[in-house]
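Reply to dn_fold:

You asked what the input looked like. This is it:
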Amino acid sequence: MISTTPKAYLVGGGIGSLAAAAFLIRDGGMPGANISILDAGPALGGALDGAGDAERGYSMRGGRMLTTDNYERTWGLFKSIPSLTQPGRSVFDETAAFNEQHVSNAMARLVDRRRAKVPVASMGFSMHDRLELLELADADEASLGTSCITDHLSPAFFATEFWFMWSTTFAFQPWHSAVEFRRYLHRFMMEFSRIETLAGVKRTVLNQYDSLVLPLQRWLAAQGVRLVTDCIVTDLDHKDVDGTFEVIALHCTLKGQAETMQLEDGDLVFVQNGSMTDASSLGSMSAAPAKLSKTHDGSWALWEKLAEGRPSFGNPAAFNSCIAQSDWASFTVTLKDAAFFDQMQRFSGNAAGTGGLVTFKDSNWLMSIVLAHQPHFANQPADVQVFWGYGLFPDRIGNFVPKAMADCTGAELLAELCGHLRFDPDTVATANCIPCRMPYITSQFMPRAPGDRPLPVPSDTKNFAFISQFVEIPQDTVFTVEFSVRAAQLAVYQLLGITKPIPPVTAHDKSLHTQFDALVKALK
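and this is what came back:
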């Protein structure tokens, strides 16, 4: 049967699916009531989470770097989403105004074992480092293949101030994909001249769930979109017509009950393939997070099933086969007095919300923290402060706590942090630290071959698309909100036949002025 009112089913409730639903309505003219977002969890938003309260403690697995120079599609979307707190203004308007008032100028970007602020005006490159970096940046992706960053840069490079700042800003590990690292060098070339102050980083007013996900979710709900939680899509029925894959039904478990959703001709299916935050777990002040794997949450299972025997659907095993190379740990700290924030301001020279990441470069865990402008949660009382931190090497023994970061309780994480800062434990006497383990958080950075990531709309499909951090968009960079939003727009436009042009990835690296400034900075 041909549907006179086509419907869209979006599997997964992350920012990609939310954005796709908005594009279906705004640019495709699809009624909101014809759109269903199906998410396995209790809340939408995917990796852009944020929850809790002052008594139980706040928690967010992470945050995403935003810029106004590189996020063309993200801001293009949020210019049409109304603010929840400022009537008559969009989310983009309120975010832009906030960043005009709170400008990043980090004065303690790196801190060494002596508790000294490391001078970072110079990148710390030798001539050999510069030549290797320029050679990698100039290489084509085909020649890099599945190589790692360490295949192209000497050991001394990974001790430079540049590497400590770049790797902790973007969460790169030395064993990650050289292709992805090269893409970041080109996409974020403008950050070369300001990486030490993080002046290019833009922040949302609150955490990214309250400031991005919630306004978008409420706008979608007001359009009539069905927002379905506790719904696990386990399989897709399809038919092959002349070698073309066409979805005809979705099998799911909705609140514990098996259901089948039959599609009509013209209906569309969008799948968020893979998950950075699959198998995430939280601990407490007295317990470390549980060590889970993909078999626990099953967020990879549908992609693995779909990709079996279909090369155009990608290769999930390239990304989810080695937790030791894709995990790190984070923590969120809730404080009921201002002692820690006051001491951090005196030490760093930055008021909360103006400094960005503070990285302890000699930390065995490569620990970093960031104190955002307060409040950071919509329900946060005025006398409560919240900050976030993470470590890139959770398997290593701490400098002050004789345990691996992944095995630490919240109290032990605070002890390690106070050790690096030389703060008395009383400074965090009121703290509630909630640790988080994320085994696949940088799985999208794993070395990959052409074809391991499918196109948003594979060439041999009719009514089906992928929208996630695990699709292929030439030149663009994963582990960004922008990548998810662009993937969603590409998929929606192609399936609906929308001919309105999508602005290309901004080629900052093609600007002679930008190249000159960045090169001068790098060669210092």
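The longest strand covers residues 231-241.
Hope that clears it up.
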